[in-house]
Amino acid sequence: MTLKQLEAFYWAATCSSFATAAERVHLSVSSLSKRVTELESSMGQVLFDRGGHRATLTEAGTRLVPLAAALLQQADRLQQEMGASTGLRGPCRLGVGELTALTWLPRLVTALAQAHPALDLSVHVDVGEALAERLDRGELDAAVIAGAASRSALTSVPLAQAAFAWCAAPHVASSLPCMDANALRKQPLVTLPQGSGVTQLVDDWLRLAGVPSVRRLPCNHWGAIVGLLAHGQGVGLLPLGLAQTLCKRQVLQALPSETPLGQLGYALHSRRDDVRPLVGELRGQAVQHADFSVADGFF
Which listed residue, of 24, 44, 81, 291, carries a Cα 20 to 30 Å from 147's Cα? Predict the structure, then answer.
C-alpha cells in the first residue's frame, strides 16, 4: 500500500467520477484505476463495486474513506513541515464568480504565488450555483460564492460584503427621477441570470419596492451589462466600485432609490470532508485579501 494508491482511491471515492478524480491527481483514468486495483490487491479487499453503470463503494471502501483522508492529511502536513521553504505544491483549483475575478482575485493569486511558488493554480469563473455543484462533485478545491453553504456536503467561511448601485445611461437616467416601480415600467432590468449571487439581492429589492413583475434582460457578464446600460438598453445594478468609476467618467449615471439596497455577503466554500492544508491556506489567504471595493481588474 502506498500514499499514491490511497490518494487515487480517496479522490475516486469522493469525486463524481473516475475521470474527475484522475484530473485531480494529474493521471489518466486508466492509471488511476490501476492504482486503485493495486490498493485492492494489497489490502485483499474489493473497494469498488464495478458491476453497475458507475462504480460505487463497497462496505470496505466506505470504511476506508475517512482513514485514507486522515493519512493523506498527515502526509500533507509532514510535507509542509519538512519542506517549509517551498510551501504547498501540486494542483489547486479555485472557483470564483466574475465579481471576485474583477476585483480582488489578482491580489489573491499574487499572494498565493509568492507564498507557494510550486502550487499549480488554476482559476475557474462561473456563477455561484455552478461553482457549488462543481465543488460538490470534487472538481474544485474551494470556491468564492455569495452566501453561506446551502449543500450539506459543503461548508463556508465568511469573507467580505459587496455593495452595489443602480445605474443607467445619462440620457435614460434623465427621464427617471429615481429607481422605483415606475422606472421599471419604462425600462427593462439588465441583470445577471438566475443562479448568480446577485439574483437574491435584486429579488429582495423588487419585493421591498413593491414591483410585482419586471422585464428582464439577463446577461452573464458584468462587462456586457455595462455595455448594454451605456447604450441605453435599460437600468441595472453594478458593483459599487465599478459604478462610481463609470459615473465619474459620465459613461453612466447613478439612480437614487428610496428602497434600501442590501449588500451581498461572500464566503469561501469548500467540501466539509476536505481537511487538507491546501484548503486551510486558501481560506486564510481569502479572508486576508477579500475586498470587493477595489476595481483593479475592471480597467
Answer: 24
Residue type, 299: F
Instruction: Round to whole Å and give the CA distance between 244 and 88.
Output: 38
Side chain identity, residue 285: Q
State what percent of residues in the chain have pLDDT above 90: 57
**What pLDDT sits at residue 194?**
83
Is there a contact between 15 and 137 (Cβ–Cβ < 8 Å)? yes
Scanning the structure block, which residue is given the C-alpha cell 458584468? 222
3-state secondary structure of 56: strand
Q: Please, what is the angle between helix 277-289 and helix 59-82, to 10°?
A: 60
- Identify the residue with better confidence: 281 or 274: 281
The neighbouring-strand residues paired with 145 are 267
Single out the residue of 201, 179, 161 nearest to residue 253, CA to CA.
179
Cell 494542483 locates to: 91
Alpha carbons within 13 angstroms on the beta-carbon side of residue 82 total 6
| CA distance between the termini of the chain | 52
CA nearest to 222, candidates 249, 194, 253, 190: 190
Domains of the chain and any CATH numbers: 3-82 (1.10.10.10), 90-161+265-289 (3.40.190.10), 164-262 (3.40.190.10)
Cell triple for residue 103? Answer: 476585483
Q: Which phi and psi (to 5°) does residue 292 adopt?
A: -85, 0
Round to whole Å and give the CA distance between 283 and 208.
34
**15 dihedral zone (left: phi>0; alpha: psi -120 to 50; beta):** beta
CA distance 187 to 184: 5
Per-residue pLDDT tens digits for 62-114: 999 888 888 887 887 776 676 555 678 788 999 999 899 989 999 999 999 99
Number of Cα atoms under 13 Å in the Cβ half of residue 96: 20
